[in-house]
Prior knowledge:
The structure holds two protein chains of two kinds. Chain A contains five helices and no strands. Chain A is an all-alpha fold. Chain A has a domain at 4-96: Helix Hairpins. Chain A starts with a helix and ends with a helix. Chain B is mainly α. Chain B folds into two domains: 2-96 and 104-137, Up-down Bundle (Four Helix Bundle (Hemerythrin (Met), subunit A)); 140-175. Chain B has six helices and no strands. Chain B has helices at residues 13-36, 40-60, 64-88, 104-125, 141-150, 153-174. In chain B, helix 1 (13-36) packs antiparallel against helix 2 and helix 2 (40-60) packs antiparallel against helix 3 (64-88). The longest helix of chain B has 25 residues, at 64-88. Chains A and B meet through helix 1, helix 2, helix 3 and helix 5 of A and helix 1, helix 2, helix 3, helix 4 and helix 5 of B.
Amino acid sequence: MHLVYPATLAVLLFCVGLYGVLARRNAILVLMSVELMLNAVNLNLVAFDVWLRDSLHAGQALTLFTIAIAAAEIGIGLAIVLLVYRNRGSSDIDRLRDLREGTGPPQDGSGPGSADEKSLAPATDNAAGSGSDQGTSAGRQHA
Amino acid sequence: MTLTASHPGFLSPAGVEIVFVLVGLVTLGAALVTVTTRQLVHAALWLVAALGGVAVEYLLLTAEFIAWVQVLIYVGSVVVLLLFGLMLTRAPIGRSPDADSGNRWVALAVAVAAAATLLTVVIDAFRSTWIDVEESVAGSSKVTGTALFRHWVLPFEALSVLLLAALVGAIVLSRRHGQKGSDR
Lengths: 143, 184
């Protein structure tokens, strides 16, 4: 088999995942695109391992490790996304901009008040959430 | 699949290439639908098709153990986790108009530029390189297990510690703390 076929497929899958990471708004869709990119890398590793016929089978061993690390990553990532959703009431990564620099363009840097209006303030959109969330956020502000 | 080592396999070499290209087209199409559809649950279901296509490509590259690991872990658990995540964040069932962010054209330009650059380099580099998939099976479970437990034992054990840490971290992150104030 020509080595160009798996290499080309891996490149195209990686770029599809790259587009998804950059263009998607929902955090879980971004995680799906990251999975596509990891699969492209795995396909490259397997193809080059089969081509080189390494006696240590480094490519396939590394592919197994990558799959396990991807599983750990998706677990942690989903836990973080669920925590953000519980605290903020949204998982849109465009609206989570509390950590951006304050000195932005002049229409953004007019003060912390306007920045808070644009971003999603913690636990204000959480009307549908239970009362323990409110208590949690209030307790964290006291702590 | 181990029979392909002893006698001419189920597919001729040209047949393997044709099947690889066809499955690759299906995989690529499923991946494109995954990143462009506006229905969030459909994106997860198309991701199953893309990951399953990659598993078939592993089988065609005679890496059968990795193919089944791909089916078990990706299709079996990662997609189910993603579906759970979609449902726990109350994703809309129908079409959601704001699935794509405002900079999708910039993202498209970046992705097309990266694809063009990488394709040029990769095709130029491996223009005259062939994989011999008929000679022997490179990734049967015996070969992979021998390599994994003879040469890669220490990374394997370190990886189990990493998985344990990820498990504990996920539990700590998703625990509802603060029945009586914050216990952090």
